[in-house]
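Archive transcription. Copying these from loose printouts into the bound notebook so they stop getting lost. Printout 1 of 2:
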Amino acid sequence: MAVLQIVRFRAKPEVTDEEMLAINERFQREVAPTLPGLERREAARSQDGDWVLVLRYADMDHAAGGAARDTSPVAQEFMSKIDLPSMSASFHPVVSE
């Protein structure tokens, strides 16, 4: 059964919008296609700087292990720009499509 992972966060105060947008784009192009079981990744940002990632995985096993597989330099740079206390993640099995 497919699973959605919802990740919410804010960038660190010293990270500019341009920097965050650029590293997100690199992650989308370079890392996301290599993650096992990841079917889709979407990023959204509110005008006041809240980010939301919606990741669709093939199943819970892939979803639960997704973060552990993100070890590339691009993934590490992406994580280094996030205000970690603001970050939350949740998993939601898809019940209808």
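Printout 2 of 2:
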Amino acid sequence: MKYAHPLWRTLRSLKGNQRTAVVVEPLWSVPNNLFMPFVSVYMVAIGLHGEQIGTIVSVGLAMQLVWALLSGAITDRYGRRKTMLVFGLLSWTIPCLLWAIAHGYLDFMLAVVFNSMWKVTGNCFACIIVEDGDTDSLVNIWTLINFTGLVAGFVSPVAGIFIDKFTLVPTMRAIYIFAMVLMTMRFVLQYYMSYESSTGKRRIKECAGQSVLTLTFHGWSVFVSELRKPRLFLCVMLMAVLTSFSTVQSTFWSLFVTNIYDVSNAMLSVFPLVSSLTTLVVYMFVVPRINIRSVRHPLFVGLGLRAIGIVALLVGEPLRHNLLWIVFLSAICEASSLAILGPLTESIMSVVIPSEERARVNSFVTALILLLSTPVGWIAGSLFQTNFTFPMVLNLCLIAVSTILTLFVMRAVNPKGAMNA
């Protein structure tokens, strides 16, 4: 057969660490996407209120900032493979266990402290995907990685059935134990199936005998130099706003629709299915047409879809009891937007960060993004305590800021799509 879908061609052509990363990713993404829709309502069921949830989110972002800052030095000092294994277990295996047995605010706070270490594995993963691999296929590779999480969406109604039968809290505890087992397998398998990249081997030798703190701040001058370039500075600002939006959306969307639109906890399990179907369509027919050298239209389309989803929820609020379809529209818009913006922004950041200092510069970039977005969790939580609709209004404002920043990002891209310094 002469024709093959671009994603299928990319999957067949993958080799080495890129192939391993894509193959084992479902062991993390499936359980993660299975429990994510219920995290906030699970916290409420345990006894937490909106401001406590917002505080946990902000503390998590603050801790992520610290680990993001150290992640480059840790990755270079100990190597991509070893760091991925150790911090993968610390950031997911332990938190999943803590979430499964949580009984109050302090349990969730302790879990988020451990979970914040995922920024180290995130840095490792970005290096593994880019180094010794085909950079021309980055958009499709990130799409394949995100694609694996769709499987959870198709089985999420099963979670709804169990929630209906056994109630929310016992079901969530079981899901977290399930997630702990699969995620542990994911990091162990990747360790044994992967190899240290050529850049990783060189950095281990160069960093031998140096402390993590010394290595961390030794790269500060390189980061400052790169940040002065419009292409990186503008991308960092845009990513900070998009991260703030995602933080608010993932934390308070489910609480908003359950409180305002009277969506039941069991019904929440249907929306991941809708989102997965939507994302599948976008991945199959839209994302393969996106080229990293032409980002203007995809960025604006993604932001526009997010705005439509939020506006629909706010406009329909007065008639909420008869307009459940608006919640579905919001979920479809957000899924479409995320499917477009996710692989695109990941690919853009991979390209604008210099390859020779990728790990350390990436750690500073991630830390700066988190520093700028850390307050949003507490702000949104406080707004939610005042009025359930305010976090959605905040997100609408963040979309407006993202749109303005995107206009400036376009000025750092020449007509052929190459990033200007």
